[in-house]
Amino acid sequence: MRTLGAIVFDFDGLIVDTEGPGFISWREVYERFGAELNLDHWSRATGYVGGFDPAGYLEHLLGKRLDWSQIIPAREARNWELTLKAKVLPGIEPLLQAAKERAIPVGVASNSGHGWVEEGLKRLGLRTFVDAVITRDMVMNPKPAPDVYLKTVQCLGIDPDRAVALEDSEPGCRAAKKAEMKAVAIPNQFSERQDFRVADLIVKSAKDLDLKTLAELFLQ
């Protein structure tokens, strides 16, 4: 019988709300041009690489090209300002602590860059809980391809069918299932419109999870 052998976390939107700062900083850009960026638009960006181009969409709405030489740096500075204020999402740290106490390997598999994730984990005081960090720049294909998950469990020394992925997005859940892992979805306000039927379990918050709940997924 298969048992829980590893837990692999997504990063953006799952461990910490970096989706919010991205949305807010872009929405403020839109507002300066009298345009609107709403959650329906942003949901197409959540979990996808290249799923939605906010700059291109703004130009489409305005019907003209824009000079981004000053807009983009200002937007990135605002995004970083908001990101630095973001805290670990509820339930994540207790789950990491429980895994460490039980010597269950923990990985992070992200569609973001390696530096972003590593620095984010250190900033949040979580890096010591994580045994392997694999990001999109370390594999051939980002999520929804299974590459980041397959490489993560390989680094952890665990077969994929003994690992569970925690995800906030549909493409992340699809990536985990393609890797033959269990997938737990924790949708947020930016991803809740996505289709999570592929997930093995859907919860509102990581506070609803513990090691027993994750282990029971392997009894199904």
Describe the structure.
40% of the residues lie in helices and 11% in strands. A six-stranded parallel sheet has the order 3-2-1-4-5-6, sandwiched between helices. The protein is built from nine helices and six strands; from the N terminus they run βαααααβαβαβαββα. The chain has helices spanning 19-32, 39-43, 54-62, 68-83, 92-101, 114-123, 147-156, 170-178, 211-216, and strands spanning 6-9, 106-110, 132-135, 163-167, 182-185, 201-202. It folds into two domains: 6-17 and 87-219, Rossmann fold (3-Layer(aba) Sandwich), CATH 3.40.50.1000; 19-83. The model has no long low-confidence stretch (mean pLDDT 94). It is elongated. With 220 residues, the chain is α/β, with parallel strands linked by helices. Strand 2, helix 6 and strand 3 form a beta-alpha-beta unit.
